[in-house]
């Protein structure tokens, strides 16, 4: 009974150990997956945060440019930075253009101070219609339209370059309005003519499936800008502190001291090497280089000599067909006209010719039957001993080494020391 109880306990322990081992393995695998997932998650989060910061930075740059243009022009157009931003957001929700792209175009329109606040919204919409219809960037459209509205009389002629033609009656009407000081009316007249030419191309494109996808992507970009804004606001204090630390005279002095110590150590190390080199190190260094060069040449010479020997050995026992025929012509009493080869061994009858190779290519004609045993079936191995100098070898010496090695190989095969 005690034995049974003991076995039961052991079995239970074994099962528990197996179970615990499997659970442990599962937790180990889970830990590995968790760590890999955490690393991938951190990388993905870092990438998304970078995209958010980049999006916010782009938006911030465009906004700063708007403020700079308004300041440089003195705000003569009567358009505020807030109004510019609102128009960009409004048209982004209806067209395939992002608010940054739209506001960049508006910034160019603002440089043409003749465009007033009443005309500016319609000019912005026309700029987008021209870009969509003509397939050109917003910057080009803004400059073309801005020139036309800044000087309506000459601007009509400039618009011909993009395929917009005003008839004589329209040109005369514009000229009369400008001469009477009704420039804003002339600008509105031009914008109406351009609306007939390009219609609501930008808004129409935004109503397509591709347009709706683009609008959604731009709105997601706005969300990224919000996240980027939060990140920038969070790290800006640290950047300011770091900048202040870098600008601190005490920090600059400390860095200068470290740089000076590094410079002194480098100069000392260079001088030590120079003194060693001048006091005999030059010869030592040259000796090392010569030894390395001689070693390399020796290895190359050995390799070349071995190559020559192997080439010579491949030719041994392989006489040309013409050489064999010439040898056969002088033989008499040989049975049959076909030369036998017994490289793999075999039996021969009396009078049969065969190629053998104890001292190179030979023809063997036995007077009675016999057997040839190939070298791969001979159990006794042989060693080739070579004594010679391979330093400073030239081609002639290498040929001599090859011949000596081949001769020593043949003597070893014959058992001659």
Characteristics of this structure?
three-stranded mixed sheet; single chain; mainly alpha; 417 residues; two-stranded antiparallel sheet
Fraction of residues in β-strands: under 5%
SSE pattern, N- to C-terminal: HHHHHHHHHHHHEEEEEH
Low-confidence stretches: 1-17
Query: How many β-strands, per DSSP?
Result: 5
The largest β sheet comes out as: 3 strands, mixed
Q: What separation lies between the terminal Cα atoms?
A: 82 Å
Shape descriptor? elongated
- Average predicted local confidence, pLDDT: 75
* Share of helical residues: over 70%
Question: Structural class, from helix and strand content?
Answer: mainly alpha
- Rg: 48 Å
Provide a count of the helices.
13
Order of strands in the sheet with most strands: 1-3-4
Give your account of this protein's structure:
A hairpin with a 5-residue loop joins strand 3 and strand 4. With 417 residues, the protein is mainly alpha-helical. Strands 1-3-4 form a 3-stranded mixed beta sheet, with no helix packed on it. It has a two-stranded antiparallel ribbon with strand order 2-5. The chain contains 13 helices and 5 strands. Among the domains are: 58-226, no CATH class; 311-413, no CATH class. The protein is elongated and about 135 Å long. Helix content is 72%, strand content 3%. Residues 1-17 have low confidence and may be disordered.
């Amino acid at each position: 009974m005690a034995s049974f109880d003991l076995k039961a306990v052991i079995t239970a322990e074994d099962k528990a150990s197996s179970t615990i081992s499997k659970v442990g393995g599962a937790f180990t695998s889970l830990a590995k997956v968790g760590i890999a997932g955490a690393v991938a998650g951190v990388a993905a989060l870092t990438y998304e945060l970078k995209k958010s910061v980049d999006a916010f930075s782009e938006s911030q740059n465009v906004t700063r440019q708007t403020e700079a243009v308004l300041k440089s022009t003195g705000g003569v157009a009567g358009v505020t930075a807030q109004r510019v931003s609102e128009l960009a957001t409004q048209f982004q929700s209806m067209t395939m253009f992002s608010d940054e792209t739209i506001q960049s175009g508006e910034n160019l329109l603002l440089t043409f101070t003749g465009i007033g606040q009443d005309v500016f919204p319609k000019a912005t919409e026309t700029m987008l219609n021209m870009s969509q219809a003509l397939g050109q960037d917003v910057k080009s459209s803004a400059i073309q339209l801005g020139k036309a509205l800044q000087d309506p009389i000459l601007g009509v002629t400039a618009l011909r370059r993009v395929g917009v033609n005003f008839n004589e009656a329209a040109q005369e009407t514009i000229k009369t309005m400008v001469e009477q000081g009704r420039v804003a009316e002339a600008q509105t007249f031009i914008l109406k003519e351009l609306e007939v030419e390009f219609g609501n191309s930008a808004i129409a494109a935004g109503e397509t499936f591709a347009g709706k996808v683009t609008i959604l992507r731009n709105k997601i970009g706005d969300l990224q800008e919000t996240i980027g804004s939060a990140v920038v606001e969070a790290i800006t204090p640290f950047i300011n502190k770091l900048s202040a630390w870098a600008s601190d005279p005490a920090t600059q002095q400390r860095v200068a001291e470290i740089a000076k110590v590094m410079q002194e150590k480098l100069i000392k190390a260079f001088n030590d090497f120079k003194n060693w080199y001048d006091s005999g190190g030059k010869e030592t260094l040259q000796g090392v280089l010569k030894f390395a060069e001689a070693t390399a040449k020796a290895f190359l010479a050995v390799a070349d000599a071995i190559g020559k020997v192997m080439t010579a050995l491949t030719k041994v026992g392989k006489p040309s067909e013409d050489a064999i025929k010439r040898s056969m012509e002088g033989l008499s009493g040989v049975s049959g006209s076909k030369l036998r080869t017994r490289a793999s061994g075999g039996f021969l009858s009396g009078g049969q010719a065969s190629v053998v190779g104890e001292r190179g290519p030979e023809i063997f004609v036995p007077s009675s039957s016999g057997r040839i045993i190939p070298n791969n079936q001979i159990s006794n191995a042989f060693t080739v001993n070579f004594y010679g100098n391979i330093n400073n070898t030239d081609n002639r010496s290498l040929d001599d080494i090859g011949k000596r090695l081949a001769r020593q190989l043949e003597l070893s095969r014959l058992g001659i020391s």
